[in-house]
Amino acid sequence: MTLDELSAIARANGLDLSREQLDALGAYATLLKEKNQVVNLISRKDEENILDKHILHSLCIAMPQVAGFSFPLGARVFDIGAGGGLPGIPLKIVRPDLTVVLCDSIAKKMHATNEFITELGLVNIRGVVGRAEDLAKAPEHRRQYDVIVSRAVAPLDELLVWTRDLTKPGATMLALKGGDISAELEQARKMKNVQNVTESLLGLAEYPAFGSDEKKIVRVLLR
Question: Which CATH number fits domain 3-222: 3.40.50.300, 3.40.50.150, 3.40.1160.10, 3.90.660.20?
Answer without folding.
Answer: 3.40.50.150
